[in-house]
Amino acid sequence: MLLRFVSLRTLSVTAFIFCILILFTTFRLRGHLIIPNTSSSWGAPAHSPSLELEPLDQYCNTFPLSEDILVIVKTGANEIHDKLSTQLLTSLRCYKDILLFSDLEQNIGPFKVHDALKHVSNTTKAESPDFDYYRQLQEDKKNDQDISSLRRKSGSAAWNLDKYKFLHMLEETWMMKPHRKWYIFIEADTYLVRTNLLLWLERQDPSELIYYGSPTYVNGQGFAHGGSGVVLSGAALSKFAENDQGIAARYDKMLQSEAFGDYVLMKALKDKGVAFNGRWPMLQAEKPSTIPFGPGPDNGEPLLLQELYQDMVGPKVYAEREDWYNLSDDQLYRPPGVDGDRQKSREDMSALELEAHVSFEHCGRACEEQPRCFQYTYSNRECGFSYSYRLGRKRYPESGKTFIVLLLNGYDDFTLCIYSSFRPELCLPIPNSPKAAAPSVNFGWDFPVI
């Protein structure tokens, strides 16, 4: 029996070492570098031993890295192997710098996981039954026990302990990595759409006191839902943590009677003059199966070309203008023997098209004949058609040339008829025509402006 026990133990140890080597090699091959530790008065690194990730594949290189964005992940020892590894090997490996916090200090391959509860006040640790689970974690680690087995025994203990991590995580982050422009706090199952995030943050001002998140409410007070991600500007985190060592511990007693750590986070930031601003749906807790599809900021009407016309173009439209170029050059008609681009062969021209170069009037009649011609221009025996409607720009005479344009295709009632493949012709009066008023007209254009 003893021989069998020794053989199984040897086999288990060998398998464990082999798995560790495979995990370590996998992470190393993906280009991860560990920053050396340096000591601080806290007994924790002054410069974080967090990971700098070198993006080695095409996916990460599709968007430039930002040296000023730090991603901070909050997790727990009982779930860390289930959720965090996927993040580290996929979306998080595209960020230059990350910090990991849990309720137990440990290493995951080359990744350092910091104990977010290390500096919780001793009074709170002694008074609150929430920390029974924390002490059990430390004991099991010391005795090399299987920590994941605690999940089956502990029930809600890990969740009760989680609320104490938020503020201490903020303070520790500032101690390790101060003066970044942006701090993004997420959980192990929060997915960041990296391109959207970076483009969005480029349009924000990190010198302002910014505290963004997906809003949730307790007692009528809104705060950022921690699982959806919390965005803090460098100015906001500095306002909270700089020159105020131990600030997180001052809220530990309050947390004993509150259910949600992200709610107390809001109150602590508010005490420092940092107000919450909801940014749903940019930050949200929904899965594809639970996203509410209906009225809201992400389901409103798009900006239509019709609206751009009515506000920016319509008031400037005239039935006819001289010395104006309306960009009518999709199809050009020139005298016989004069060649050029965008010109039909004479064999394919109708009788009116053959004479389109003769005069402004001839050009107009040829345009009226063609269903695709929206507007035309005439200059120096050259007639041009446009297959779309455009306002154009001023153009001064050149060597005696005069540019004459008609901003409609020659209809006697001064209407502009827009043809769409989705609808029959839709017509509206030209606003500045002497024969028409300027009503509000629905073009029937169904194309949003991108």
From TrEMBL:
Query: What is the membrane topology here?
Result: Single-pass type II membrane protein
Query: Where do the TM regions start and end?
Result: 6-27
Keywords, alphabetical: Membrane, Signal-anchor, Transmembrane, Transmembrane helix
One GO location term (cellular component): membrane
Q: Where in the cell is it found?
A: Membrane
Domain of life where this protein originates: Eukaryota
| Keyword Signal applies | no
Q: Which family does it belong to?
A: Belongs to the glycosyltransferase 31 family. Beta3-Gal-T subfamily.
Please report the name of this protein according to its UniProt entry.
Apple domain-containing protein
Organism of origin? Exophiala mesophila
